[in-house]
Design goal:
The two termini are 24 Å apart. 29% of the residues lie in helices and 28% in strands. It has 453 residues and is of the alpha+beta class. The protein contains 13 helices and 24 strands. The structure holds glycyl-adenosine-5'-phosphate. Glycyl-adenosine-5'-phosphate is lined by residues 145, 147, 177, 179, 188-189, 192, 194, 196, 261-264, 316, 318-320, 322-323. Residues 145, 147, 177, 179, 188-189, 192, 194, 196, 261-264, 316, 318-320, 322-323 line the site of glycyl-adenosine-5'-phosphate.
Length: 453
């Protein structure tokens, strides 16, 4: 399937209500977007698919929904205060700032000048004040990754669920980074969502689990409709690894603007639990951690044979929800020329991701018998709890089909005068455009077969 231009996707998103620039009526806010009526459904469906695969379908993973506001000590011991930086340069001529690693041929990205400052580190975390006093000490951070709150809750989850390693904690939620150059629509933004799993394993078994999760995660993206050939596995070079990582694999996807990271799968060793733990000297921590004088918890598990306390290693698959949405839109967007020479745009989404699962269309918008019958069908299908079903009462069947092709609705159900006589309806398939006549009472099963695998 060809990769679309970013403009085609941005235009569809705005036109049909998937994604809008935030605060547009005031000129926007750079690197921040809002999800509209269809975008919120698509995003929720992607998150639901992740949660189902990573939590519900396993017995070795528990969920968490922790706070966004984060105690500054967490981000001190995690290493983010010192190392979560990008190299930044200023253009002395046009005064714009940009990431040093984005610059080509030593030229300003905005005006082409070579009159640039030397790169200097710029911390990407957002700080905010807590409480009524605004002094240098009363600040917290908006979390730059969801992961840290998982590590700080490690003991709570172990104590409350009696889990033993190997096991994981999964979380989906917002993260914030003051990106120097947000760009490429929702690819690099300042407020985004992550789907992260921290999977705790025994030291020595970490490399096998790393391989396991790489495979699992590629398979999951393929199940969401991403073509396998469009995912490249990049072994991040040693010199580019994050401060916590022993090895990281990036799943690189062919986005409309180029091949870039969709998800990272890192072996974080015992760095995080080790750095947030008290009594570090008793724990044989292998990673290079800051001496912790503040934590009141031992983040370790007891080896039942040796009785020694050991800090688990962590394998972390970390995916961006927004990048996922962009990849899914890119994969499913198609422009087709029909036999009659007309063009149609289709969003060939997997049905479980479609914002609307079925559109019920009365053939005549002013015929109360047909409209009431249609409403009844819509209500019954909605009650199945399989996702959103809408009543599309425009009176224009062709226009309704075109709209629902473009927003990825897998089936349209048309109610006409025949329906009133023999309780049959026309079901039109989005991808094949085939129409078949079926009994109303078969619609429940038809929907279930479409959505439940
Ligand atoms: N906990 C590990 C971590 O945060 P990361 O590679 O910095 O690692 C993980 O981020 C994922 O989060 C990325 O693969 C990407 O999908 C998403 N992500 C990171 N920064 C982003 C940004 N500025 N805008 C959108 N998504 C972003």
């Amino acid at each position: 399937m060809p990769t679309q231009s970013m403009e085609q996707l941005v235009s569809l998103c705005k036109r049909r209500g998937f994604i809008f620039q935030t605060n547009e009526i005031y000129g926007g806010l750079q690197g921040v977007y809002d999800y509209g009526p269809l975008g919120v459904e698509l995003k929720e469906n992607l998150k639901k698919a992740w949660w189902t695969a990573m939590v519900y379908s396993r017995d070795d993973v528990e969920g968490l929904d922790a706070s966004i506001l984060t105690n500054k000590k967490v981000l001190k011991y995690s290493g983010h205060e010192d190392t979560f930086t990008d190299p930044l340069v200023d253009c002395k001529d046009c005064k714009n700032r940009m990431r040093a690693d984005h610059i080509k041929d030593s030229k300003c990205l905005h005006c082409g000048s070579t009159n640039l400052t030397k790169p200097r580190p710029f911390n990407l975390m957002f700080r905010t004040n807590i409480g009524p006093i605004s002094d240098d000490d009363s600040y917290a951070y908006l979390r730059p990754e969801t992961a840290q709150q998982i590590f700080t809750n490690f003991k709570n989850v172990v104590d409350s669920t009696s889990k033993s390693i190997p096991f994981g904690i999964a979380q989906i939620g917002k993260a914030f980074r003051n990106e120097i150059t947000p760009r490429n629509f929702i690819f690099r933004v300042r407020e985004f969502e992550q789907m992260e799993l921290e999977f705790f394993v025994k030291k020595g078994e970490d490399e096998d689990w790393h391989k396991y999760w790489i495979k699992e995660r590629i398979n999951w993206w393929v199940q969401q409709g991403v073509e396998k050939d469009k995912i490249k596995v990049l072994n991040v070079p040693q010199e580019e690894l994050s401060h916590y990582s022993k090895a990281t694999i990036d799943l690189m996807y062919e986005f409309p603007h180029g091949v870039e990271e969709l998800e990272g799968i890192a072996n974080r060793t015992d760095f995080d639990l080790g750095s947030h733990s008290k009594n570090q000297e008793d724990l044989d921590i292998t990673a290079d951690v800051l001496k912790n004088k503040d934590s009141n918890a031992r983040l370790a598990v007891q080896n039942i044979n040796s009785k020694k306390w050991e800090v688990p290693y962590v394998i972390e698959p970390s995916a961006g929800v927004d990048r996922g949405v962009l990849a899914i839109l890119n994969e499913s967007y198609k422009e087709e020329t029909l036999e009659n020479g007309k063009n149609r745009v289709v969003l060939a989404l997997k049905p479980h991701l479609s914002p609307i699962k079925a559109a019920v269309i009365p053939i005549k918008k002013n015929d109360s018998t047909i409209v009431d019958f249609s409403k009844k069908i819509k209500d019954n299908l909605q009650k199945l709890g399989l996702g959103r079903v809408v009543l599309e009462n425009t009176g224009n069947i062709g226009k309704s089909y075109r709209k629902h092709d473009e927003i990825g609705t897998p089936i349209c159900i048309t109610i006409d005068f025949e329906t009133l006589e023999d309780s049959t309806v026309t079901v039109r398939d989005r991808d094949t455009m085939e129409q078949k006549r079926v009994k109303v009472e078969t619609l429940d099963n038809l929907m279930r077969n479409l959505l439940v695998k």
